[in-house]
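Limitations
The structure tokens in this dataset are predictions for the assembled complex, not deposited experimental models. Users should treat interface geometry with appropriate caution, especially where small molecules or nucleic acid strands are included. An illustrative entry is reproduced here so readers can see what is and is not provided.
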Amino acid sequence: QIQLVQSGPEVKKPGESVKISCKASGYTFTQAGMQWLKQAQGKSLKWMGWINTNTGKTTYAADFTGRFVFSLETSASTAYLQITNLKNEDMATYFCASGDFDYWGQGVMVTVSS
Amino acid sequence: DVVLTQTPPTLSATIGQSVSISCRSSQSLLHSNGNTYLHWLLQRPGQSPQLLIYLVSRLESGVPNRFSGSGSGTDFTLKISGVEAEDLGVYYCVQGTHAPLTFGSGTKLEIK
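Predicted assembly:
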């Protein structure tokens, strides 16, 4: 069956970097784009952008430019989200979702604390 | 950015009751290609969101048919005809017609 399995929870200090993975299985990875979303505790979802898994082209929402990078390892059917120079406001759960939100990863909680 | 206003913010229902959630958009969600990219998600407690309805009224595979969506332009509704215990959680509308994609603030469904 189709699954998106994300990496485990992360605890980081301000200024550090984090790289989250999202491994797809059960379908052809390059046939659906991968969306990335942020959800702060108790809040709604915020769209960060998406990556075309066929071409690698990335699109970032305005609030997620500069410190946020989407990338792929197509041979491993895996998408990545890297956040550099972490700030307190980056503390949230990050989800990957394929296509038009058909399938979701389980989410990765990122804690930023000094 | 398109603002999606969901009402009510919370909803309390008994098993078997029918309920509706409204999602109003600050702009028409009718795309120039004729599609309306308004979808509904459910996030159960402690879980990832799941897609219930896409393109206003199309039921995602595996979703019970007690869920239905309707609307056009700027006004949309999700209806649950006969709430079941497993329906508790937060419902979100999301639009994909205009970049960036935006979400409503959510409607929390509680079971009495």
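Some entries come with short summary sentences. For this one: The radius of gyration of chain B is 13 Å.
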